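re: that complex we talked abt at group meeting.

here r the seqs, copy pasted straight from the sheet so there may be weird spacing, ignore it
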Amino acid sequence: MSRANLIAVGSSPLGETDLPGRDLFSKALAEAFEELPDPADVVDGLYVGAQSERYENQIMQGTLMAEWAGLRNVPAERVEACAAAGALALKNAVRDVRAGVHDAVLACGVEKMTAGGTEGATNALGAAFERALEQRSGITAPATYALLAQRYLHETDATERDLGRIAVKNHRNAAANPRAMFQQAVDIETVMDAPAVAPPLKLYDCAPVTDGAAAVVVANDEVAADLRSRPDAIHVAGVGSAANNLAVAERDLTFVEGANVAASTAYEDAGVDAADVDVAEVHDAFTVCEALLAEAAGFAPEGRGIETVEDPGDRSAGWTDVRINTSGGLKARGHPIGATGLLQAVEAYEQLTGRAGDRQVTDADTALLINEGGVADAHTVAHVLTATDRGE
Amino acid sequence: MTDTDSTTTGPLAPDDITADSPFTLPGFFDALAEGRLVAARCTECDTHMLPPRPACYGCGSRAVTLSEQPRTGEVVSYTSVNRPPSAFEDLAPITVAVVELDSSARLTGRVAASLEDVAIGDRVELRVRDPGTVGIDPDFDLSYEEEWPVHVFEPI
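got the structure back, here u go
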């Protein structure tokens, strides 16, 4: 089996932009290939994560992105699992490189969420939920996660303020991330005073509607060595994915089982433990998710995921020293649905190659990514990434 | 809660899967319109599933049968959809809950009460409404959904 490496990354501006999806992709591609030959001379396949054709009335995203990258007559496929689409693109690229199907593959993701306004985004995202009983009851993404949050607050000692502090922490992290949509801190009072979207979730508990794209190049050792010096590449050491229930009603509301399975599979694949992870990008589409995922990933004891906001030395016994969502997470870096899983990979790349500037975690050599689609762990994709110099 | 007169214990044969059977959505909603809430019940591990489906997510078995459900249960979690999808605008804010029926089957539904009047553990009863009376924009319905009843929970 070949080893898969991440050798270059790029992202578009994130937020409400004047660029349509294909142009956002052009931005991400241009950055990823700044120091590389033409994509056609590097990659021989492409996967693109895209949540919905409702935003721009465009499917065939594989063909479109390949064309924009100058790739012709190569496999180029769109993958979809709502917000897990980006990590699915990465997973498929890694699988192809590991299997020797391709020497290098472009994994990208794009979403032009603001095209139809907030109403358009609400309606497009609504398609991720079970249709017969749940969509027909009028639910939305914030409402499904509010059902998780309400139960979490009921079963644990956590409070709404504890959830709010996760948003405060992620805004503080984003303030040090030049890629982030919201590069400014917010205080807890602002968070607590914001309007309720779906109680107990308020505005700042919810990731924003974001336009954006990301692109990463996955290559085997030979291509990686040919194009990049060692410190400029990282290994994709572990992959795991799991589909759980579609309906919110039928899941365990306070334990994201599918995420636990996906993360455990990725750890085993990489030969690491949760305690080895220095930095993690987890899917904080809503603040409660970060707490739930910290527990499911083995970082935090049951019911103590809210301590993600604390410095490692101040956390309860049983917590690891991991730093979570140094990018600002979905909440503050931004959440362009199909691109999010790859934006998580961009942050891991920067952390593990020492490029993370003011938010650099000292000696970070192992990263976990958890990207989810549907409500909670309806679909989860996890990756473990390691610095090339780790243990060698 | 008793199993219906269905003799199916799965795996379903192709001929079992017809629009008359509650194992399909048209059959499930036809039964609901007549006042019967029908779940699939796994005969291996007793997981109840709404709507019915051909395999059990709990244990993977296809040994599923149909089981009429009690209408009463309790609130497991709840919230208010303050900004609903556009087709539900007239209903906002919408109180919704995950309800566990007395059989252990779980489903999500609207609650005919304001958020302040709902709490975890509250007893509720499922009611069935004619789709035209609920206030959902009819354009929301797909062609095959137009006659399907809409469920709602009432506090008891």
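couple things i noticed - Chain A touches chain B through 37 residues (CB under 8 Å). Chain A is about 35% helix and 20% strand.
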